[in-house]
Amino acid sequence: MILALRALGVGDLATAVPALRALRVAYPDQQLVLAAPAWLRPLVELVGGVDRVLPTAGLDRLDRPAGRVEVAVNLHGRGPRSHRLLAAVRPGRLLAFANAEASHVDGPDWDDDEHEVSRWCRLLRGYGIAADPTDLDLRRPAPSGAAGGVTVLHPGSKEPAKRWPPGRYATLARELTGRGHRVVLTGSASERAVAARVAYQAGLSAAAVLAGRTDLAQLAALIAGARLVVSGDTGVAHLATGYRTPSVVLFGPVSPARWGPPPERRRHRALWVGARAWPTWDGVGDHPTMVALGVDEVLAAVDEVERAVRVDRAVAA
Q1: Phi and psi (nearest 5°) for 158?
Q2: Which is it for the CA torsion 65, 69, 75, 79, positive or negative?
Q3: Which pTM value belongs to this model?
Q4: Which residue of 76, 102, 225, 295 is surrounded by the most CB atoms within 10 Å?
């Protein structure tokens, strides 16, 4: 058995897709088990190649899987907690970044500034396993009745510093609606109130508020069939990358160099104001790096990705 640990969220799983596929190719005769939150199962099925999910939320506990673990792979972090969690299942071999505190010194060194996709591919290459960081496409989900061709605005984020002001999402929604876009608003159940506020200010109907009304499989189907996605640096942006759905991703304060869409994919545009000397943020109100992104700049990026789609279609014709 090959046991990979990635006990995080949607975007974290999406950025580990190339590494998981590389493990599948490297160990074709072994069962590939992913230690990840149980609620991610629908998305794991769209990755392909993973035989089973071992429900694991965070690093507090890892149930011992049935059967011998030949190779454990730490796709979660640099250690030492994640290293020790995997070492406790007594694998024949541990593939992980070097961490002397966890008594694991044979892995590659960690690089703080590395893109998340490249990081895990480099880890595997350090152990002689080829991994392609461009292998990000997700399987198309089964038809779910989700509306096709909509423009998805996702105003929420678990990290307050990554949220663009709701009033600007409302202005953007009005502008896009005027251009003929069918705008819907997604998010978790806890983000339904902010999505409803954006819809009200934009003059959209209550039916446009899908926040809290879609499960993960339905959200994936919605993104896969969407015309456009605009969101902050969150899981929805990574789903858009995985389905090559045109997207504009609003970054701040973290650089897209670490979590952004691949620069070679013209259908995705990351916006970031750059490394400026912002005053210390006290957590009240919107983060200055997000306030610095204007609606006009986002609309210009929308124009760019939609031009890229037209070029792609012309080339394919």
Answers
A1: -65, -25
A2: positive
A3: 0.94
A4: 76
Q: What is the 3 state secondary structure string of 213-282?
A: CCCHHHHHHHHHCCCEEEEECCHHHHHHHHCCCCEEEECCCCCHHHHCCCCCCCCEEEECCCCCCCCCCC
DSSP state, 194?
Answer: H
User: Does residue 301 contact residue 260 with C-beta atoms inside 8 Å?
Assistant: no
Structure tokens at 263: 């620069």
Identify the DSSP state of 128.
Answer: T
| Angle at 72 (CA atoms; ends 67, 77), nearest 5 degrees | 140
**Per-residue pLDDT tens over the stretch 201-258:** 999 999 999 999 999 999 999 999 999 999 999 999 999 999 999 999 999 888 899 9
Quote the CA–CA distance of 101 and 79 in Å, as a whole number.
8
Angle 89-93-97 (CA atoms, 0-180°, nearest 5)? 95
274, HSE (Cβ side, Cα atoms, 13 Å): 1
Confidence of residue 165 (pLDDT cuts 50, 70, 90): very high
Residue that has been written with the tokens 């990705």 in this structure: 305
Q: How far is CA 218 from CA 43, 199, 223, 246, 273, in A?
A: 10, 20, 9, 18, 33
Burial class (CB in 10 A: 0-12, 13-18, 19+), 96: buried
